[in-house]
What does this fold into?
Amino acid sequence: MTAASTTATTLLQASQSEVLQEIQSNFLLNSSLWVNIALAGLAILLFVFMGRDIESSRAKLIWVATLLVPLVSISSYAGLASGLTVGILEMPAGHALAGQEVLSPWGRYLTWTFSTPMILLALGLLADADISSLFTAITMDIGMCVTGLAAALITSSHLLRWVFYGISCAFFLAVLYILLVEWPADAQAAGTGEIFGTLKLLTVVLWLGYPILWALGSEGVALLSVGVTSWGYSGLDILAKYVFAFLLLRWVAANEGTVSQAGASFGSGGAAPADD
Ligand code: RET
It folds into this structure.
């Protein structure tokens, strides 16, 4: 190993343990991460238990998608709590914390790219949505998360942080449209209208909290501290992931027949197969 690479490695390690120290010295931030690790662990055990008797392939698919939500979550929060996916960013001129070094838990935005599509997959299957609207909802959602990550990570320009925020909101609008306009009608036709209505409301209300928190938190106008912002996201996560997933799984386990009968429109654009 050359002297230069030894120095670079030492610096890299030093900065990672420096981040960890910063996290551990911020009680609010640290507790917001560990509470979620514990809850995700409990949710995984509970959801495995709740799905033990599910047999039909479609209900199983919903179950696995739902189970992946706490599985991604525990990995995400472990990454944050270890400091691996937390950086120290110097905010650009124009930002409320310009020139200051701010702790940025960017791993959150990255891992939403894996967890939120699972939530939408489970909801879309529940509503018996056709494959094109399922594809649209999931890809728009991924677009929302990746551009949200860009907005959080940009340190070159204050304006561009908000431009990316705006692009992310535009992707989000497409997801909201599908959730509020397209899938309720599909769910009604599939006989899952009532549970879909409850979960849709929970999802839409809670998901709206995320961009609001981003704008008010240290990434945005910095009215809220890093610790308070992190607790905000953790609180939303508890409801939008574990409570949501629990309600969905409980219903699916008790109504497997309804779920397994759906699926005729999957891949056929909603048209019934020709009667030949
Ligand atoms: C960001 C900032 C940019 C604008 C928008 C956002 C929306 C985020 C959402 C996140 C939902 C996360 C969930 C996670 C569960 O694992 C990226 C905050 C629109 C809606 C439900």
About this structure: The two ends are 71 Å apart (CA to CA). Residues 109, 112, 115-116, 144, 148, 151, 165, 168-169, 172, 207, 210-211, 214, 237, 240-241 surround retinal (CB under 6 Å).
